[in-house]
Every structure is written in C-alpha cells, then in structure tokens.
C-alpha cells in the first residue's frame, strides 16, 4: 500500500453519468476543479469486486489533448486506492481495441481508456473517460450505474504524493512506493494478435501478384496511425508513401473531426475517387471504428459486417478454427447479417441495443463470434471492443481470397455478388447534431406516445407513401446471459413489408442533443439503386411522422450516411 496518501475533501458534481461509451464532455468541463478527480475516484469506488486493492489496470488513450493530465490523475488516485500495477501505453497511447487486447492478454482487472472517440479534440473540444472490465470490454450498465451513483455521493478522494512524476516515454518498468508502472509498446501485442487472426501471407501474396492494387488508409490524425503503418506497410508490404494518410496522432486531430464517414472523412473520399483507389479505409480517433470504400463503391457498415460474416470461415484463419459461434448487430443496424445467419444455419443471432458493451456477455458465453453496428463499428470475439484495423485487414483478407477464384475481386463486385445471393438491405442514417435538447426530447415523447397508442390502434394500419404501419414500439432488450433489462433503446416504426424507421437520441454527444434517424428497406429485385433514391419515400415518412422540423427547427441533417 502506498505510504503517502492524502485525502482531499470534495462534493458531488452534477452530470457525471457515463453515456453510450463512457463520460464525454468538453475538455473545459474536465479541467474544472475536482471534476476529473471525482469521476476517477468514483470509478475506483465502484470497481467490481474484489475492487482496486492490489489490482492491475491498463491505462491509455487516443492521444487527445488533456490525456496526459488525466493519466497522471489516474495513477495518483488509483495508487492511493490500492492499485498495485499500472500497464500504460508509451506516451499514453493505446487504441481502444489495443487496450482491450492488452487487458485480456495480461489478465488485468480492468482498464481506463481516455478518449472521446470520434468527437473532435483540443482545448475547445471533447475529452472522455471510459472504464473497461476484466474481459476487456466496456463496463456494463450495472457498473456504469454504480460509477454514477458513487459520483453522486462522493465526499472525498485520495491522492498519492509522488516525489518523481511517472515517465510515460520510456518502455519498461518503474517502481514507486507501493506500486509499479509498466510502460509498453502500444502496437506490438496488437500486431501479434492480428497476425494470428488473419492470413497475412495470403495478403502479401495478393499484393505481389497485383502491384496495381491501391490501398489508402487514413487515420484522420487519430491513434491508429502507428498501427496502420506497422500493419499495412511493415507487415503487409504496402507502400508508405502512397498508402498512408494523416497517420501521425495529433492532440487536436489537426482540427478535424476524426469520424470515418462520408462527411468528415471527405479528404479521403476525394482522394479515393481521384486516384482510383481500390480499397480506401479510415478509422476514428480511438481506432475502434472503420469505413470501407473504393472509387466506385461505398460499403455501409451494416453490409460490411455481413460480408465479413459471409466469408469468415472460408478464408480467415481465426474463424476457420473457431467456426461461427453466433452473429449479432445493434438494433438500428440493417438486417443484412441476419440473412447470412439464416443462409448458413446459424441460429445464435442477436439484436442488442446501441453500444458495444451489449456484445460482451454474449461473447464471454461463447455465443457470439462476429458483430457490428451501423455506426462504422465492426468486430469479433478476438477482443471485447469494436476494431477498426481488424475490419480493414478482414477486407484485405477477403479481397485476396476472392482474387484467387475470380478476376472480379473489386469491392464493388464483392458487394454485387453478395446482393445477388442475399438481396439488398438499403440503409441510411440521418444525424442532426447539436439540436436543442428540449425540442429533441419533445419529439421523442411525441413518437413514444404513438408506441403506447399501438394498443388502441394508433397509427397501426395507416399508410404513408404506400408503406403500411405494422408495428410501433420502443426497443427493449433482455440480456440472455444475465437477464438485465435495458429499456427505451429506440423508437421503431415497422411497416408491413419489414421496412423500418428508427429514432434515437445519441448518448455520446457533449453539446445539446443529437437526433439519429435510421431507415431500412429490403429489396431482392433492384440491387444497384442509389440508396438515397431507394429510401426517399421512407425518409419523407420519417420526417412527417416525427414532425422533426416542427420540434427541432432543422431542415437538413448534419450528416447523411
Ligand atoms: C454512437 C454510435 C454507437 C457507438 C457509440 C460509441 O453512439 O451510434 O453505435 O457504439 O457511438 O462509438 P450514440 O449514442 O451517439 O448513437 V465510439 O467509436 O464513440 O466508442
Ligand atoms: Co471510437
């Protein structure tokens, strides 16, 4: 136990409730006196049994502004609460998937990840703190609720007084009075893991046989730069000059929004089109998201996970050996993966609320191998977070495999083949960012009242633009492993042809409210329409039924995916 511990009196601070993925606020909020300290102490207070005494935790983040300060606070408060061993990425750097992998590999008791993911960084922007449990995944709601309760009751926190500051820049072990700190290479263990999962040899071979194949990876100045360089260039042999973009992690992500979608990653999209890139890819600030595209196709994340599931046991060594234990998606994600499950006779198929934390229990129980979210999240049970680089390498592995059998191995041909077999789930998402929180709440209340009306008829049976409403509900999930219940996870309007519209408020924004509308329609006859054209009548229905303009004053979405 640490000798020099000081107790600092404090009082609860409002609003320290973790959202979809940790506590995310403006940096300025975290910098307020006691703010970060209170929350970090609340994590240790609520840490699942046996608690922090003599525990080992992994700490690291996406390199954003304020991360180093937060790491020193975590060491100080953690050691004072009994943590005996901190495993920290060099310079504090760990991508979210690498942190998850490290927690698992080193059998740590948990981890703290410093990131606000795809939210912009820098002094005027966002910071975030997320607690992960010993399986390497985001804490479930029972734990995040306990953290929140602790933050509402806090009256003091403990700090350690150190003679020398921990040096984050030197790989190796450092001993302090009562605890130790181990600084690790953030990339090494992660690369070793991917080497075991994928057929690197096949991809290298493919690259040699197809020297004109162009890969372009954009880290959006986030944490994945060093990972991308190591894997795409050093391991797989792609050219550093032409294949990497924005691969140096910056504290403010170069002023960009490190969110891999068509709006915020537009420089990548433009380069992919201009240079006729065969596989364009990006990941977000903390490296758990991914976007896949080519000069003639954009792969929706819902399709991406379905395609990976389709090919997994044919060509990805990890799944060849484990088989597919089950598949899953978040509720708003399109049902493309359900069709793969059906065709392959996979009965273990789950629809969970938004947020990766809901997949962890299923994986731990051996009932889930591959899963995804429409929000550019794809992953598997190799770790307990979504994994951006994993998804990109999965695509390379699949392309290399397809190229052995056919000369049509472009992203576009792979997608069209997939639709030929399964039909197409057209999908789009409209985001309205930073809308007035009050208006957004009122809109949800309006929609919810329709769900309750269902019992009395309500809009059931009403026809909008030719689509007849079959059902309206508010998604509720009962975890099949621990029976915990999550209510109010999204309003769904489901039509008789299985088309649907889903409404949710974001749980990761830091300012006002973000309204998300998800729209989906299945078609097995016309598979190569433009998605926005195919979905236009449903988009109109969504706007009409929700009265979005009336409640929020917004005419246009901020982002369309
Ligand atoms: C969003 C996405 C969700 C994702 C979450 C965290 O949440 O919709 O699918 O799991 O971000 O991703 P929300 O509540 O804003 O819709 V990340 O890359 O921020 O860890
Ligand atoms: Co992220």
UniProtKB/TrEMBL annotation:
EC number of this enzyme: 5.4.2.2
CDD domains assigned: PGM1
Gene Ontology biological-process entries: glucose metabolic process
Gene Ontology CC: one annotated term: cytosol
Keywords on record: Carbohydrate metabolism, Glucose metabolism, Isomerase, Magnesium, Metal-binding, Phosphoprotein
Domain Alpha-D-phosphohexomutase alpha/beta/alpha: 16-156, 189-294, 305-407
Region (Disordered): 1-21
Single GO term (MF): magnesium ion binding
Cofactor: Mg(2+)
Regions crossing the membrane: none
Entry protein name: phosphoglucomutase (alpha-D-glucose-1,6-bisphosphate-dependent)
The species this protein was found in: Coemansia reversa (strain ATCC 12441 / NRRL 1564)
